[in-house]
Automatic annotation (TrEMBL):
Pfam families: DoxX. The keyword Repeat does not apply. Its main location: membrane. The chain crosses the membrane at residues 46-66, 73-92, 104-121. It comes from the Bacteria. One of its GO terms (cellular component) is plasma membrane. InterPro entries: DoxX, DoxX-like_oxidoreductase. This is Oxidoreductase. It is a multi-pass membrane protein. Belongs to the DoxX family. It is found in: Cell membrane.
Length: 135
């Protein structure tokens, strides 16, 4: 039972964080995000893919729908961010920009969610089965 509670809290918190990142990108304007992406060597069109994935992915994590798949997609986005934008800054950053330490933490949470049993406090459990965590 304790693990199910912790898993649910991890899922909801990670969802809130991704939702906030998605909202932030939309508030900045996707053209601005595309321009930033281009300035660091990422194709600008990726802003129009990453931003909605973060927004919708965050919502899906919060409600616990398609958790495994969303977690895997978010891991791919986070790895992309590390290897295209943050690796050269180092683990802790360069004093002006953050490094990739938070991305690693997010990856570890998402990886856990990708392999964890469904908890009863999710739409995945309600819609797709009663296979709740045994803990």
């Amino acid at each position: 039972m304790k693990i199910a509670v912790v898993t649910t809290v991890m899922r909801v918190v990670l969802g809130i964080l991704f939702l906030a990142h998605g909202i932030s990108k939309f508030q900045m304007g996707l053209d601005g995000v595309a321009g930033y992406f281009q300035s660091i060597g990422i194709p600008g069109f990726m802003a129009y893919i990453v931003s909605p994935i973060e927004l919708v992915g965050g919502i899906l994590l919060i409600v616990g729908l398609l958790t495994r798949y969303v977690s895997i997609v978010l891991i791919i986005i986070l790895l992309g961010a590390i290897f295209t934008a943050k690796l050269s800054l180092g683990l802790l950053g360069n004093g002006q920009m953050a490094g990739y330490e938070m991305d690693l933490a997010y990856i570890m949470i998402a990886l856990y969610l990708a392999v964890a049993d469904r908890t009863r406090w999710s739409l995945d459990h309600l819609l797709f089965g009663r296979r709740a965590s045994r803990h």
